[in-house]
């Protein structure tokens, strides 16, 4: 679905899925956006728009997560946190923080690449949300970042550095330039975006937590401060909780706009577009008098056809579209290219086959933020007893429906689930206490084929059903999708086999579709 409302208005959110921690830049008549990708691969999605309302996914800036040894298994809430996207010296630049490694950077001459390999700008635990600034007035370069308390024991403050203009290294040890512990009522200050405007250094940064907080603005005549602050966007009497971090962009005609996220539980962090003006004292005013807008006049930009990031896939030649990401760095042989349509997934042998959350070879895409129906056709080609494949709704709890080869050689439809751990912790490698259970009685699947369906209703409540040749029949009880700690629920395709020797065969998925509204 797109955010189109009428020829003259748009409706929020403009990206109604988990495009977490968005940042945006304009180059000429084109707008580009990136977002957090955490532990999924490829990372750093790249979106394009001409009107700030209609967006398409044009690629990724990060082919694999580094260091590779850290991401051979899923680390759903780690990896790429809160990137910043900039254009300087005829190159695109993305900086991000890995909370366990430090601040990384990649750059490219064009948005579609080729992108450099990740370069570690500053090593350290808990260094997150970095944003660079090249000051055209002085030729100086700077970087600001926040802190992850879970890794460093530091929070609620922003640290500033001088940066070499080539962007590869910092020139000092850094200095705290905003200490929000000294601002009454402020907590969890994070996600800074750094700008130069009207003779001021500006930092736009949220505080108060992703579900309940507000967007702040800080300004100073000097980069290292002192800074004064204001709240420039908060929930007020709207239903947009927490309006959280994002980026400011100016159109060719001089209009200012702000893209930020809203936390929506299993749907993740959806993206809103706010108008941005300036008060008589030179402070930004976001939304409608500091409150998020649900509907608004469109930006003063040329009309564009409705568009949204792709979801459907026929998998031509066995290749999957850009919208899909693996749950860890992929290995050779997980898919097979061929001359027809259809995704041919290898039934990967795994000791963790009983817990999808621990598998690196699950192919995922974002859960849509509106009611919809997800369908895919599956053929289980593997002759291996115990081999299975299916369609999952994956989070800290998950449920999947699919096909399994029995010891007698027959294929049965299976529907299984695993509950959320009481601690909310990720699954252990052994999966102790979190093994799958059957959600329905196994049924025969003649010919090893089935059409799988998930109807996703309000609140991400999922109803599973299948068609093994005699029409769709419901399976199991309603399942409420759950997020990870920082990541929304995911749709997943998976093929797996028990441990053993040799190739375990494949499963073929065809005609993946997401349709709205949901049936029933």
Task: Please write out the topology.
Layout: E1 9-11, E2 23-27, E3 30-34, E4 43-49, E5 56-62, E6 81-88, E7 91-98, E8 102-108, E9 119-123, E10 127-134, E11 141-147, H1 149-152, E12 157-163, E13 175-179, E14 193-197, E15 200-207, E16 214-220, E17 228-233, E18 246-250, E19 256-263, E20 269-278, E21 284-286, E22 295-297, E23 325-326, E24 335-336, E25 343-346, E26 348-349, E27 363-366, E28 372-380, E29 388-394, E30 398-405, E31 411-418, E32 437-438, E33 443-444, E34 449-456, E35 461-467, E36 473-480, E37 490-497, E38 506-515
Parallel strand pairs: 26-37
Antiparallel strand pairs: 1-22, 2-3, 3-4, 4-5, 6-7, 7-8, 8-9, 10-11, 11-12, 12-13, 14-15, 15-16, 16-17, 18-19, 19-20, 20-21, 23-27, 24-25, 25-38, 27-37, 28-34, 28-38, 29-30, 29-37, 30-31, 31-32, 31-33, 34-35, 35-36
What does this entry look like structurally?
The protein is mainly beta and 520 residues long. It has 2 domains: 9-297, Glycosyl hydrolase domain, family 43 (Tachylectin-2, Chain A), CATH 2.115.10.20; 325-515, Jelly Rolls (Sandwich), CATH 2.60.120.200. The strands form 8 sheets. Strands 23, 26, 27, 29, 30, 31, 32, 33 and 37 form a 9-stranded mixed β-sheet that branches. The radius of gyration is 23 Å and the shape is globular. It is built from 1 helix and 38 strands. It comes from Streptomyces pimonensis. Residues 291-324, 420-450 are annotated as: Disordered. Residues 433-443 have a biased composition (Basic and acidic residues). One of its GO terms (molecular function) is hydrolase activity.
């Amino acid at each position: 679905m797109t955010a189109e409302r009428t020829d003259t208005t748009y409706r929020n959110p403009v990206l109604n899925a988990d495009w977490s921690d968005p940042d945006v830049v304009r180059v000429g008549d084109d707008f580009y956006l990136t977002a957090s990708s955490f532990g999924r691969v490829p990372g750093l999605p790249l979106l394009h728009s001409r009107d700030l309302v209609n967006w398409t996914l044009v690629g990724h800036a990060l082919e694999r997560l580094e260091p590779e040894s850290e991401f051979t298994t899923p680390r759903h809430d780690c990896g790429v946190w809160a990137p910043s996207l900039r254009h300087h010296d005829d190159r695109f630049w993305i900086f991000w923080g890995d909370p366990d490694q430090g601040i990384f950077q990649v750059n490219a001459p064009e948005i579609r690449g080729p992108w450099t390999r990740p370069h570690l700008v500053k090593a350290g635990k808990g260094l997150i949300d970095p944003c660079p600034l090249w000051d055209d007035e002085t030729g100086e370069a700077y970087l600001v970042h926040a802190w992850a308390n879970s890794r460093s024991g530091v929070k609620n403050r922003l640290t500033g550095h001088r940066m070499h203009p080539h962007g590869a290294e910092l020139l000092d040890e850094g200095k705290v330039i905003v200490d929000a512990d000294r601002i009454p009522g402020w907590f969890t200050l994070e996600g800074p975006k750094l700008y130069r405007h009207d003779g001021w250094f500006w930092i736009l940064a949220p505080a108060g937590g992703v579900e309940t907080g507000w967007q702040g603005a800080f300004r100073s005549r000097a980069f290292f401060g002192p800074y004064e602050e204001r709240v420039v966007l908060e929930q007020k009497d709207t239903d947009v909780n927490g309006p959280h971090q994002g980026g400011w962009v100016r159109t060719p005609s001089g209009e200012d706009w702000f893209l930020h996220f809203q936390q929506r539980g299993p749907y993740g962090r959806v993206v809103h577009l706010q108008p941005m003006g300036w008060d008589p004292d030179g402070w930004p005013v976001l939304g409608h008098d500091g409150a998020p807008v649900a509907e608004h006049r469109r930006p003063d930009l040329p009309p564009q056809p409705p568009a949204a990031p792709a979801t459907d896939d026929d998998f031509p030649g066995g290749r999957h579209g850009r919208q899909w990401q693996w749950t860890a760095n992929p290995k050779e042989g997980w898919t097979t290219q061929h001359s027809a349509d259809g995704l041919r997934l290898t039934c990967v042998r795994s000791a963790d086959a009983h817990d999808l959350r621990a598998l690196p070879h699950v192919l995922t895409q974002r859960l849509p933020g509106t009611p919809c129906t997800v369908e895919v056709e599956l053929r289980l080609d593997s002759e291996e007893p115990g081999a299975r494949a299916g369609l999952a709704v994956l989070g800290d709890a998950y449920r999947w429906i699919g096909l399994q080869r029995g010891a007698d050689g027959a294929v049965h439809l299976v529907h299984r689930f695993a509950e959320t751990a009481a601690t909310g912790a990720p699954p252990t490698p052994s999966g102790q206490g979190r093994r799958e259970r059957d959600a329905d009685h196994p049924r025969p699947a003649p010919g090893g084929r089935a059409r799988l369906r998930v109807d996703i209703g309000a609140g991400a409540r999922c109803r599973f059903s299948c068609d093994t040749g005699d029409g769709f029949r419901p399976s199991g009880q309603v399942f409420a999708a759950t997020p990870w700690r920082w990541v929304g629920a995911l749709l997943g395709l998976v093929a797996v086999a028990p441990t053993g020797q040799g190739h375990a065969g494949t499963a073929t998925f065809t005609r993946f579709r997401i349709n709205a509204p949901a049936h029933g």
